[in-house]
Amino acid sequence: MVAKNLGTEAEVLERYSRGAHVVEPDLCCPVDGGDDQQYLALLPREIIEKDYGCGNPSKWARPGDTVVDLGSGAGKACYVLSQKVGRDGRVIGVDFNDAMLELARKHQSEIARKIGYANVRFVKGKIQDLALNLEKVQRWLDQQPIRRVEDFAAFEAECQRLRTEEPMVASNSVDLVVSNCVLNLVRPQDKRRLFEELLRILRRGGRAVISDIVCDEEPTPAILSDPKLWSGCISGAFREDKFLKMFEDAGFYGIEILSRHDQPWRVLDGVEFRSMTVRAYKGKQGPCLERNQAVVYRGPWKCVCDDDGHTYHRGERMAVCDKTYGLLTSAEGPYAAQVIGIEPAQPVPLDHAPPFDCAANAIRDPRVMKAGGGAAVSTGGSSVCCLPSNGHGKCC
Fold first, then answer.
1. What is the distance between the alpha carbons of residues 94 and 75, in angstroms, rounded to a whole number?
2. Which residue, among 313, 396, 328, has the nearest Cα to 362 in the 3D structure?
3. How far is the C-alpha of 163 from the C-alpha of 152, rounded, in Å?
4. Domains (ranges, CATH) in the chain?
5. H or E segment at 207?
6. Could you report the per-residue pLDDT of 77-128, keeping only the tens digit for each?
7. Relative to the CA of 44, which of 209, 349, 354, 378 has its CA 20 to 30 Å away?
């Protein structure tokens, strides 16, 4: 049983609109700003007081990043990110609530003067449809209001044109997507599309860092039917394991729990709700090409499996394709500290590299990697581990 969509969306919109004018302390669980305190000194008090969230994903930004903040609210995270990414970076805050957008934009010029540059913009949109700028939609509707059923066709065509020709956030244009206790507000039927949108807008090698409310069990029917609990970040909470699975299903890799509160924020009907922050990367899409490369897993586990089903045995030279080699050895990725990358003595030019069978889980013969070696590999590792079982890894 799920609350009626209109009632739920209306309650979320109304409560967050109220939160833009009056502090709503119970809107989400408290957040420890941590190392962001130095950046908050330049921000007006009302922006800090009317910030609602459950984590601190902005701490993972890098200088020069282009960042999108989903559900940017009063703009606190965007203005913190503005300082972290620096003059060469960009920050885009996305929110659906007019009152929050007005508050975020209110101090935009003042903060830019204090920082010394202007690299933040706020746009109105739904986070599950990041291509559609709703302020542009509204301007079109003001001039061509819908009066007849037939007018819907023109409206839908204009929305599609805007997504294609004037996207609010373009594909492959973002280094980092952050969100702080907002994904749970999206309707269940739209959440898969939401994660697909995160992947769409990220560049190859980009990452998503999402703080949200998760639960240890499925919410009860009573919780799901309460609109106030939806707007309070409870009813739409992800079950912990399903939260990570949403990233996996969308095509992310390197999915990792960065933080998880030990103590639950709330317990309702025996279900525990707490904050969790997850990071995931984009970049495993593309062809698999053979360039005679290998990686050695350092340990401490006997063997591990990655998101594509590759198995890495501790201490053994595992044959990998060029794409996987890049993912595992990149200093900006999640795996570099856990593997040793080994290039062949005679590199294979990328434009001459044949296809590689990533399903083989093969050991690379050291002779292959020496001058004059061939391209032979031997199948299997020193022990059986992480063999696929009904689509899931079954380790040891």
1. 10
2. 313
3. 17
4. 5-131+167-281 (3.40.50.150), 293-394 (no CATH)
5. strand 202-215
6. 999 999 999 999 999 999 999 999 999 999 999 999 999 999 999 999 999 9
7. 209
